[in-house]
Amino acid sequence: MRNRNLCYLLLGVSLLVCCSFFAIGQEKTKALYCSEKSGNYSIQWNWIDKPQSIKFPAKSGNLKLPKKYIVFEVVSSNLNSNLTLLRKNGGTITLPFIDSARGVLDCLTFKVVNSGTLSKELNDKYPEIVSLKGFDVKNKYNTVRFDYDGTSMNISVICNGINYLYAPYKVKNKVYYLLFKKTDNNGSSRLTR
Fold first, then answer.
1. Taking CA atoms, which of 12, 121, 155, 172 is between 20 and 30 Å from 181?
2. Least confident segment among 16-30, 40-54, 56-70, 139-153
3. Distance of alpha carbon 4 from the chain centroid
4. What is the rounded CA–CA span in Å between residue 161 and residue 158?
5. Dihedral sign of CA atoms 107, 76, 173, 191 in order
């Protein structure tokens, strides 16, 4: 009887330990990675460390699934107004980024302004369209181009001479952002929706 109780105790402890590790793994799946809070806006990027669980189709719109990529989701209660505020006033935006020299994920902060792509009249007519340009606050040679059409973002970062893209990839009703080198986009040099 005593051996049986000991077995039940060990089984219970084993299950508790296994469940604890499982819970930690689940939290890591949507861990906060980079966020920006400034004045009235906030944008948070969550790193999805197990993208195989999402089951990305081979194609989303005209974008083919890149050879190598990192997946993020964006959390912002008011993304449209947040980005419109940046278009009007400029400011900073923080993006998750892969530091290929160190082989780690990092956050880069860019100082951005309205790119001037749209005239004032078109900006007034289409306030949901945001086009920004800027540079890394720590290295002015690293640049960003940021476009938002009211539903999703397309971002291009040139860092140390390498062009990286953040492309929206739709799965069911959810938009994920894939970060990858432009050269890993299966030979396509263009992102279109």
1. 172
2. 16-30
3. 51
4. 6
5. negative
pLDDT digits (tens, 9 = 90+) for 114-135: 898 888 888 788 888 899 999 9
Can you say how many angstroms the Cα of residue 70 is from the centroid of all Cα atoms in its chain?
A: 8
DSSP codes joined into one string, 6-74: HHHHHHHHHHHHHHHHHHHHHHHHEEEEEEEEETTEEEEEEEES-GGGT---SEETTEEPPSS-EEEEE
The vertex-43 CA angle with 136 and 131, nearest 5°, equals: 60
The domain ranges of the chain are: 29-184
pLDDT in tens, 146-166: 999 888 899 999 998 889 999
